[in-house]
Amino acid sequence: MQDSQLVDPFGRRITYLRLSVTDRCDFRCTYCMSEDMVFAPRAQILTLEELYAVADAFISLGVRRIRVTGGEPLVRKGLPSLLARLGTREELEDLAITTNGSQLHSMATTLREAGVRRLNISLDSLKPERFAEFTRRDKLDQVLDGIEAARQAGFKRIKINSVIQKGRNDDEVADLVAFAVARGLDISFIEEMPLGSVSSHQREITFCSSEEVRERIEQRYQLVRSNHATGGPSRYWQVAGSETQVGFISPHSNNFCGSCNRVRVTAEGKLVLCLGDEGALDLKSLIRRHPGDSERLRDALMTALQLKPEKHHFRTDEQVQVVRFMSMTGG
Asked: In this structure, what is the dihedral angle of CA atoms 229, 230, 231, 235, given to the nearest 10 degrees?
C-alpha cells in the first residue's frame, strides 16, 4: 500500500480517521455532554453522501483505518448504507465503530454484514444505579443485551471502553476485567479528558491514572506485556491465561502525541487536527461550495495538516481546557 500523503510538520503520517456521523446521543454521559445539550440543526450536519466524500478523500490520501463515531452513531438514520459503501473499500484495513451499545441488540448483525470489523462499546459500570448516574439513563440491561448480540453476530474483536474516575467507579476495575475475560472481550481503561464544562464531578479530584488502574487489576489478575495494536493510542497488556487484551489510554500520565496518526471530522464537517486544540477547518463549507470537487478537498486536507500541533497540553488541575464536549468531537 502507498504511504499516506497526509504528513504533518513533525513527520507523522495520518492513516487513521475518526468520522463522526452525528452529534446526537440517547445517553447523556456526565463526562461527555451536559443534560440539556443543544444539538446542531440537521441542516448543519453532513449528509451521508458528504460523509462518504470526506472518507473517500482521506482514503485516496492514504488513510487505512476509519472509526465511525458520534454522539451515538447508531442513532443516525441511514447509517448502514454509508457503512456498506465504506465496507467495500479494499484499501481500508479496518472499519470500526464506537458505540454506547444501546442499539446493538437490533443492529449488530446489520453492522457485521455492512463490513464493520470491530466494535468499541462504552461501559463504565456494571451496577445499574451507578450506570444510570454516569449515563443519566437507566439502560444497563439494554447495553448488556447489545454486547451479547454483538458476540452472537460474530465480531472477532469487541472491546469495552471504560472511563475510570476515583471515588466514582474505580472500585469496579477488576470486575470490569472479569466481565471482559468471561466473554472473550478486550477492554481499555481511559483517563478522563478535560473537554467541556462538567457539573457532576471535579476532575482534579476524580482523576485516576492508568498506573493506578493497572495496580487495581493486578490485585486479581496477572498482566503480561502485549504487542497487540489497533492503530489507536492504547498500550496493551494481556490477562494471563486468557485472550483478553487490557488497554490503557493515558492522555495525562503517558502522553501519546509523538506517535499520533489520526485526525477527526465532526458531524458538522469540521476537521479537528488535535483533540486538545480548538482549531478546526470547515470542510462542510468547502464541500457545499464545490460539490464533487474531490481534488480541491484533497488539497485542503493536505494543507490543513501543516497546522496540526505537536501535542496536546491536558492537565488535571483545570476545569475546562477545550470548550467543546467530547460528544461534539466524535471520540
From this structure: -50
The answer to whether the beta carbons of residues 173 and 189 sit under 8 Å apart is yes
- The residues, any chain, with a CB within 8 Å of residue 12's CB and separated by 6 or more, are 259, 260, 261, 308
pLDDT digits (tens, 9 = 90+) for 169-206: 999 999 999 999 999 999 999 987 665 454 454 556 67
Angle (nearest 5°) at CA 39 between 38 and 43: 140
- 239: enclosing H helix or E strand: strand 235-239
Cis peptide leading into 154, omega within 30 of 0? no
Q: Going by DSSP bridges, is the β-strand pair 235-239/118-122 parallel, antiparallel, or unpaired?
A: unpaired
Q: In what order do the strands lie in the sheet with 245-249?
A: 223-225, 235-239, 245-249, 186-190, 157-163, 118-122, 94-99, 65-69, 16-20, 262-265, 270-272, 280-282
DSSP string for residues in 109-134: HHHHHHT--EEEEE---SSHHHHHHH
Checking if the pLDDT of 28 tops 60, the result is yes
Rounded distance between C-alpha atoms, residue 46 and residue 79, angstroms: 12
pLDDT exceeding 70 applies to what percent of the chain? 86
pLDDT of 232 over the 80 cut: no
- Is 104 in contact with 14 (CB distance < 8 Å)? no
- Entry pTM: 0.88
Return the H-helix or E-strand segment holding 105. Answer: helix 104-114
H or E element: which one contains 299?
helix 294-304
Write the DSSP string, 35-64: TTPPPPPGGGSPPHHHHHHHHHHHHHTT--
Looking only at the bridges linking them, the beta strands covering 16-20 and 262-265 are: parallel
The stretch 276-299 carries a mean pLDDT of 92
How far is residue 309 CA from its own chain's centroid?
20
Q: Is the pLDDT of residue 313 over 50?
A: no
292: left (phi over 0), alpha (psi -120 to 50) or beta: left
